[in-house]
Protein: DUF393 domain-containing protein
Organism: Sporichthya brevicatena
Amino acid sequence: MGTGRALLIFDGDCGFCSRCARFITRRLPTSAEVRPWQRVDLAAYGVPPEQAQHEIVWVAPDGRTDGGAQAVARLLLDCGRLWAVPGALLRIPPFRWIAHGVYRLIAANRYRLPGGSAACRLPTD
């Protein structure tokens, strides 16, 4: 903690999530660190383990957090340029609501997506 950079936390045990994280680090011009929750001191960032297992989490340099679709929005805003346009749209209704629904649908089915496996399946409530 205290690097002055944002942090994007993902599930390193999920093949689909790991594949997305590799895409982010290779293709997107983000200044954020991208790390699996299994290698992060979640308590130091105030992120509950249940949240990190359930969705990606964006931790801003000032310590504020966003999860799920809003973490994606923050990532895109951080990338700047044309990436910031969809990032900004994802922050306002009705796009925010749609993004939340799409994110939940993808998260619930990530084990079926390319790179996913049965280990990626989220526990049911």
